[in-house]
Amino acid sequence: MKTNKHQPDSHEHPSAGLPAKKKDKLQLLIGSWIVENGDTTYMFNIEQKKNRIVIRSMDMSRGVYFKIGKTKWDGNELSFALKESAGGYKADCVIKPLSSNKFLQKVILKEYWKKLSDSEAFEILDTAVKTQQRLKRPKGGREGIALN
């Protein structure tokens, strides 16, 4: 009976059967990461436990943890679903290792929008126009209008 390359079983993470080079890329992501985005600081902790990847994440500026699911490593990128534990915020994320101290994250936010009727839209616009304020730019700048 011929033996094929090792195929991961249902209890192993897909990276288990990958060539060493693809596993090495995954190793670049293992560790704790932080990103500061304006007033918000996010932390990610990525671990490999046995044959699975465990991700923990939180918004450190608000002390809110994210629930992580649907984790998948394809050999180049790590994808996962992220949901704010307090509710509301959902995103599909993909991170790609660039080096041992840098990765690129792509985020697709999931939001549901409500379509306004014409009367609702005109009411909102009318309120905005009534509350507008004139702003002046320093020396030689143009005036701008801020809607509150």
Give your account of this protein's structure.
- The chain is of the alpha+beta class.
- The protein folds into 2 domains: 14-110; 113-148, no CATH class.
- The chain is 16% helix and 47% strand.
- The strands form 2 sheets. Strands 1-2-3-4-5-6-7 form a 7-stranded antiparallel sheet. A two-stranded antiparallel sheet has the order 8-9.
- The longest helix has 13 residues, at 118-130.
- It is elongated.
List low-pLDDT spans: 1-20, 133-137
Main sheet makeup: 7 strands, antiparallel
Q: What does the radius of gyration come to?
A: 23 Å
The termini sit apart by 74 Å
Overall structural class, as computed from helix and strand content, comes to alpha+beta
- Helical run tally: 2
Number of strands: 9
Average per-residue pLDDT, rounded, comes to: 75
Note the beta-strand portion: over 45%
The oligomerization state is: single chain
Largest sheet strand order: 1-2-3-4-5-6-7
Order of helices and strands: HEEEEEEEHEE
Domain count = 2
Helices and strands in order, then pairings?
Elements: H1 20-29, E1 31-37, E2 40-49, E3 52-59, E4 64-73, E5 78-84, E6 90-99, E7 102-110, H2 118-130, E8 133-136, E9 143-146
Antiparallel strand pairs: 1-2, 2-3, 3-4, 4-5, 5-6, 6-7, 8-9
